[in-house]
Amino acid sequence: MIQPHIGVLQEKSLHASVKTWYAGPEDQLETKVDGYVIDIVRADDLLVEIQTRSFAPLKRKLGELTQTRRVRLVHPIATEKWIVKVDAEGEAFGRRKSPKRGRVEDLFNEMVSVSHLMERETFAVEVLLIQEEDVRCYDGKGSWRHPEWRAYDRRLLDVVERRRFEEPEDFLAFLPDDERLPRPFTNRELAKAAGIRMNLAGKMTYSLRHMDALTVVGKKVNAQLFTEAAGMPGAGSANRASEAT
To answer: Is the pTM of this model over 0.70?
Structure first.
């Protein structure tokens, strides 16, 4: 009898479901490559890693693999979520729709760990915008903030859209156009124009800088001013705006 790999034994529903949805009939699952277990290995030797949470634990693994192999990192983001409550035995007794809606920009919460890898032609990131169930168990084993409720599982309901980023300039699509966000700009101006939190705007500019898609051109009071790096689409008009400033 073939024993399941330890990664499969600890696998949560969302990770398993995304892997099943993403894999093709010829793909190999949970295969060891260069000392690492890979979620999906394709016939053309593309390695696909699925990460439902933080990218930080994968930083070393991705860094080593992308030196010699093509790797695609797949990350699901829930644009719609339903909260399902279960008791200690796993029996559901409540379900409601969460008011929180994820968006593709939330990718930058995790890109801060691996943004430097985007300069390698061997690395790409794909976002799956999904609908999911967030299952919470009422068993008194939760966090200090919510001790009664424990994060129990996440379940994939549907994949509604997918977006792939293969090179640094692909991420510049997140920046609003010149009319909404004149160049150069601060994090605060980016947050307002894009309709995102300041914290996320800071992670976006940090990531874009570390993949050499964005550069610092000065300061406005104490805030750094950013614009597209030389050679990137829009860099010409951005640099002229910088000189005018």
So the answer is: yes
